[in-house]
Amino acid sequence: MKGFFSKLSQAIMLPIALLPAAGIMLGIGGSFTNPTMVNAYNFTALQDGTVLNSFLQVMTAAGGIVFANLPVMFALAIAIGFAKAEKGAAALAALIAFLVMNVAIAKTLVVGGMIDADTNTVLLMGHHYSGILTDMLGIHNTLSMGVFGGLIAGAITVVLHNKYREAKLPDYLGFFGGARYVPIIAAFAALFYGIALTFIWPFFGAAFGAIGNALGELTASGYGFIASFIFGIIERALIPVGLHHVFYLPLWQTSIGGSAEIAGHVVNGTQNIFFASLASGDFSHFSSTNFMTGKFPFMMFGLPAAAYAMYTLADDENKKAAGGLLFSVALTAFLTGITEPIEFTFLFLAPALYYFIHVPLAGLSFMLMDLLHVKVGMTFSGGFIDFTLFGMLPGLTGTHNNWYFIPIVGIAYAFIYFFVFRWYILKFDIKTPGRKGSAVAVVSKQDYRNAKAGGSEGGSEMADAMIAALGGKDNLIDVDACITRLRITVKDGSLVKDNDFWTKELGAKGLVKVGDTGIQAIYGAQAATYKSQINARLGK
């Protein structure tokens, strides 16, 4: 089960990686076409009808189309991530299945007389279900299943693909054998489970809507901060096993995270609500219980301060090397919100520091942002780039999002993290990078250059060393990467070197074993490069 969810988390990172580019387009386009900002600062070049304004409107639409079509991207991502071979064929089959599924749903609703045109609701067994109709890829009035629709189509398709991709047909049908057979059976399967979903999904939609309504009622009654606190605790606690994406995604992308009517359309999921609000200029429906804003104080301020605390405690002769590493990961956290390189620097050295100090502080950050009614969204993480585009810019252009509380709370967090981390490291004699002759690896600039040189001797040597540490080529089943981790599936996990070897000899921030066959090596932004190098050595 752990291995499956680890693989799922890895697969869904593909569409999530698209969100920063789309979010930047929406952030810049939405902010600089906001009439309030244009009039307040008298930007005549941005007035409605100007060339620049027209271009920015196109940019806003270009960013919005990505968020509007995340379900189909998830269908493709699941197929690519779980297909054992011929991933391109699996992706094509998933796209066809997703289209057929939605057409089957839309047509079944029509021929079954299940749409009440007056209320725009689905009528099933005498009950009206509202807010579950949507348009998708030109298909009118299909069910709004959000990313779950993509996950369903992708999952069923990849099961069929892995089973039938080598199917042999009679000679007269031989052309349609193998991988070409998969889109055919995937389309027929989608026809039937699309019809079935028409009668099943409204109940799930109602259940998700009830959860969203409960969160909304908590917020309205002044207790939304409790939901925010619990969310922050769970989300950070799942970081070590890499399953946090699976946890927060339903809240960000489905009605579990709330629903709102914006510009005449029902929008589900807290992230979708934020970007729809940004595009329309109406933030009245965006709640401070949004499961996003709480990341900014500890990602931009707290963890970089923790890195500085580690630097101050490094031995004098190691300060330069340790400083290079710690400054790099601190800057990455501040700018982009990618914090795993810092977190894994101390997680394996002091688990209690992570779980009993860092995790509760993260939950408290979410709660404080809720209590202060801060309404700032993000693409995938809480760094300065997202803070500027989705906090400061909307706030300076007339949106009452209380963005200024983020740096205020963040500065307080910086002091807390700095002094608490120094105290803990000294109290329990933790050998953080460069301290007391610590063997924790500090990656040199030359090591980094070698790692980036995919075809270079240094890069090849690193890949060979990693393959050997994973038990050799014959022990490897699959090698992939997300933003910060190498995610590897092996035949026998007992053949894989332990965490100390990876941190001391291979420069990793840490190694996580998920079940008997799942391996996650934390390397930060270098993970994708190492993946390419290893697969190149494996001939993939």
Overview of this protein structure:
The chain has 21 helices and eleven strands. With about 550 residues, the chain is α+β, with helices and mostly antiparallel strands. The strands form four sheets. The protein has a four-stranded antiparallel beta sheet, sandwiched between helices. About 5% of the residues have low confidence. Strand 8 and strand 9 form a beta hairpin. Helix 5 crosses helix 6, helix 5 runs parallel beside helix 7 and helix 12 packs antiparallel against helix 15.
List the helices and strands and how they pair.
Elements: H1 2-16, H2 19-32, H3 35-40, H4 51-68, H5 70-82, H6 87-111, E1 115-116, E2 121-124, E3 127-129, E4 133-136, E5 139-143, H7 147-164, H8 181-220, H9 224-237, H10 244-253, E6 259-262, E7 265-268, H11 270-280, H12 295-312, H13 319-336, H14 340-347, H15 351-371, H16 384-396, H17 405-427, H18 445-452, H19 457-469, E8 476-481, E9 485-490, H20 499-505, E10 510-514, E11 518-522, H21 527-537
Antiparallel strand pairs: 1-2, 2-3, 4-5, 6-7, 8-9, 9-11, 10-11
Describe the structure concisely for a colleague.
The protein is built from 21 helices and eleven strands. It has helices at residues 2-16, 19-32, 35-40, 51-68, 70-82, 87-111, 147-164, 181-220, 224-237, 244-253, 270-280, 295-312, 319-336, 340-347, 351-371, 384-396, 405-427, 445-452, 457-469, 499-505, 527-537, and strands at 115-116, 121-124, 127-129, 133-136, 139-143, 259-262, 265-268, 476-481, 485-490, 510-514, 518-522.
